[in-house]
Structure formats: C-alpha cells, structure tokens
C-alpha cells in the first residue's frame, strides 16, 4: 500500500514463489519464522497446497495490509492533514488458496458455474475459444499482444471448477473481513465523515468462460 510519503512493498498471489519484501519482514517480526513452508520453491518449500493454504490467517497478507493501513490512518488522524492511502489487496486471484476456515466456508455441491452463450467466442480473439480445449496449443500466440493473460487456461472438469469457485468465494469473504477492519478504523479515528473511499479492481475474472 502507498501514501504520500510511505511505501510498503509486496507482490504475491497466494503461495507464489516471489514472496518477500516488507511482507516477509513483517512475518519474521511476528514470529512466523517458518513462513517459507507456506510458499512455493525456490523461495519456499511447499509444492503440495491445493485450495487450503497452510499459512495461519494471522500471518496472511490480508492481515498485514489491514494492520499497516490501520497504523497509517491513526498517524494521518494525528497529523490532521490531507492524506492518501492505497490499500492494495491481492485477493481474490488464482491460485485458489485460502487459510482455514475460509477454504471450506462454501460447499462446492451448492455452487453452479455459468456456461458459455452460443457463439460467444466467435466475437473474441481466437485464443479465447482455445481455452475450451483440454490441451490447447497457444504457441502461435505467446509472442503476440494477447500473450499476457490466459495462455495457461484450458477446459476443466465441472467438478473441479466448483471446488475452485467455492474457495474463490472464501477468498472474497476473507477480503471482506479485512476491508471491514480498515473501514472500522477509519471511523474509529474520526476520519470517516471527511474521507472519500473508492473500492476498485485492476481486472475481472471469467472462471473458464
């Protein structure tokens, strides 16, 4: 997250290997010295996580982001000056991982995944339709302007998709908890009535559609 004169750096989606920076320092300071066991190699040591993230919620990056945001809001209230705070959460985002109990909050059997409309991908670039193949060959597209996102997407079994969606919903609920903490803090320090709050995203998510 960022302010006019403060930066805290991290760049991670769940257990990706490039974890580090201020977030890793914070985990060490909190006494979570075994944090590498919750992340992929080469930085971490865990290669087996699926849906349940083995990191305790108290060390999850949502906790860190909310905690640092609360500290900044308290400092801004004391300074009584105009301020800017960008609390940049990473979730929800693949890979679909959430700590207990959020990973099992939603029952996959109660979830339905929307399908495609007839002819939907006829209006899209060709690599969109390729995502409906089991083993698509994206090699002609990798060096194109379309090679940024979607180059690893492929057709997946519906029973696997609903498990992903269930954990995705858990990630959303966990995010909601910590955004709520920031909004509560904004109110607690007396800044809520004079602060513009914007909730936005850098991109959407189509879940295999």
Description:
- The protein is mainly α and 209 residues long.
- The chain has a domain at 21-109 and 167-194.
- The chain contains 4 helices and 2 strands, in the order αβαβαα.
- It has helices spanning 21-29, 61-79, 126-130, 158-188; strands at 51-52, 97-98.
- The chain has a two-stranded parallel ribbon.
- Strand 1 (51-52), helix 2 (61-79) and strand 2 form a beta-alpha-beta unit.
- The longest helix has 31 residues, at 158-188.
- The protein is globular.
- The mean pLDDT is 87.
What's the quick description here?
Helices cover 31% and strands 2% of the residues. It is mostly helical and 209 residues long.
| Secondary-structure element series | HEHEHH
What order do the strands of the largest sheet run in, or round the barrel if closed? 1-2
Helix content: 25-40%
Q: Could you name the ranges where pLDDT drops below 50 across 5 or more consecutive residues?
A: none
Note the overall shape: globular
Number of strands: 2
Rounded to the nearest angstrom, the distance between the terminal CA atoms is 32 Å
The largest pleated sheet is described as: 2 strands, parallel
Compute the average pLDDT.
87
**What gyration radius follows from the Cα positions, in whole Å?**
20 Å
Count of DSSP H/I helices: 4
Proportion of strand residues? under 5%
Structural class based on helices, strands and sheet pairing: mainly alpha
Explain the layout of strands and helices.
Elements: H1 21-29, E1 51-52, H2 61-79, E2 97-98, H3 126-130, H4 158-188
Parallel strand pairs: 1-2
Helix pairs in contact: 2-4
């Amino acid at each position: 997250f960022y302010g006019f004169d403060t930066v805290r750096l991290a760049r991670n989606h769940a257990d990706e290997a490039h974890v580090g920076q201020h977030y890793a320092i914070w985990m060490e300071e909190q006494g979570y010295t075994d944090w590498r066991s919750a992340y992929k190699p080469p930085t971490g040591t865990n290669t087996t996580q699926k849906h349940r993230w083995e990191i305790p919620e108290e060390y999850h990056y949502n906790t860190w982001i909310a905690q640092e945001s609360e500290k900044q809001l308290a400092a801004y209230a004391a300074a009584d000056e105009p301020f800017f705070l960008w609390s940049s959460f990473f979730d929800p985002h693949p890979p679909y991982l959430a700590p207990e109990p959020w990973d099992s909050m939603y029952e996959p059997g109660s979830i339905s995944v929307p399908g495609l409309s007839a002819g939907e991908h006829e209006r899209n670039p060709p690599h969109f339709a390729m995502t409906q193949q089991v083993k698509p060959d994206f090699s002609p597209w990798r060096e194109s302007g379309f090679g940024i996102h979607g180059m690893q997407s492929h057709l997946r079994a519906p029973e696997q998709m609903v498990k992903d969606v269930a954990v995705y919903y858990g990630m959303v609920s966990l995010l909601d908890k910590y955004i709520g903490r920031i909004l509560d803090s904004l109110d607690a320090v007396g800044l809520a009535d004079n602060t513009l709050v914007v909730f936005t995203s850098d991109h959407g998510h189509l879940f295999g559609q």
